[in-house]
Amino acid sequence: MSIVSSTGIGSGIDIGTLVTQLVSAEGQPAFNAIQRQEDAANTRLSGIGSLKSALSDFQTVVNKLKDGNLFKTHKATSTDESILKVTAGTGSVAGSYALEVTQLAKAQKSISGEFASSTATVGTGSLTIATTAGTSFDVAVTSSNNTLTGIRDAINNASGNTTVSASIVNVDNSTGTGTVSKLVLTAKNSGLANAFTVTGSDDDGNTADTAGLSQIFSTNLSAQAAAADAIIKVDGQTATRSTNSITDVVQGLTLDLKSAQVGTKVNVDVSLDNEAVNKTLTSFVTAYNKLHTTAKDLGKYGGGTGGSSSGNGALIGDATLRYVASQVRQDSANPVSSATGSYNSLAMIGVKIDKDGVMSLDSTQLNTALSASLQSVSDVFSSTDGVATRLYSKLDNFLQSGGPLDSQQTSLKKQLTTLGDRRADVQVRLDNLQKTLQKQFTAMDVSVGKFKSTGSFLSNWISKL
């Protein structure tokens, strides 16, 4: 294309701008229509995402109420935590106990005699470390590891050692005139069953003296702490365990022994954890109201004339939205046919829905119901027709792959893909139109330029006659 024709010098017309404007005028209505449809689809897609998020949050809380374990959650208190701390867990039941801690469990700790330093040579041979329960392991001591440090490391790294830890302390000697090193052996677990002895063979031929490897044998070790079992009394009944954290004496309770106080009784009370129940039901109410607000906002009419009009909800007029909101409210408010006892609905235990669809919790009424009939309150939520049971099933249907909301999302995504293809088709058509118009206007410009040149020639020729 010549410079003259491309710039419209022949005709005086800005061909590039003219073609661009004509092409834009041709394509803008189609692009505007596609954009409106894309905006509407994206708005609905976002609305469904918001609805699914609120439903999922609500389902998470509903799940905590569905299996009934919440109403088996207990709390335990101790009247003197300096002696005994207590924690209630799965399987605990309400009750009171009088406990006495007469002895704490202890781990054995033994210490060797004095050595000049941690690198001092001890001797060679073998060590056998065995517990009262019958577990044991062997340590070979050779010229490569016969120092105090080498023996420490050999014990700690020995295959099968699950019972003893070795360490070295550097302390004043017996006369207070210098520093010496000592090997310390400590049982990894407390209790009499984990008490240990050190025996073996000494390459110097004498296992009974205080020279060579026999310096590490039990006969030459000093007891810094003797192994002991924990001994407690529960309502006067004695229980002996190897640890100070006891989980198998009172069902569902963990007893952490802190100090032994012979003759001092600590009262332990186990009761339903009303605070945990109230906290979970508060979360239930909050999640329900969030779902209610979300559904209301998504379906609201804001005065516009269409779903995409300003002020309208993203899912205005959507039948699925109305169905979801209706089902959740009905399942929450309807009586529970499988409930036993005095209570068979949320309203009867203090969870109510007002005329505007807003849920609230009366903690006083709930606690009264819990005290009067715990099983009945549990049935309201977790029995076969319980509120949480039927809600969870309904929510699962709404949220599952292939469900009504997922199907709408899939359909809208396909619609957006189709609209994208349409946009691309329109652009191809406009690109072709631009090429055609450019070619036509360029040809016109060249022709006009030729006519003007001929006209100028004739005018000059005539003026010279």
From TrEMBL:
Pfam families: FliD_C, FliD_N. Keywords: Bacterial flagellum, Cell projection, Cilium, Coiled coil, Flagellum, Secreted. It comes from the Bacteria. Residues 11-108 form the Flagellar hook-associated protein 2 N-terminal domain. It is found in: Secreted; Bacterial flagellum. Its main location: secreted. Residues 227-452 form the Flagellar hook-associated protein 2 C-terminal domain. Transmembrane segments: none annotated. Required for morphogenesis and for the elongation of the flagellar filament by facilitating polymerization of the flagellin monomers at the tip of growing filament. Forms a capping structure, which prevents flagellin subunits (transported through the central channel of the flagellum) from leaking out without polymerization at the distal end. Belongs to the FliD family. Homopentamer. This is Flagellar hook-associated protein 2. It comes from Methylomonas albis. The gene is fliD.
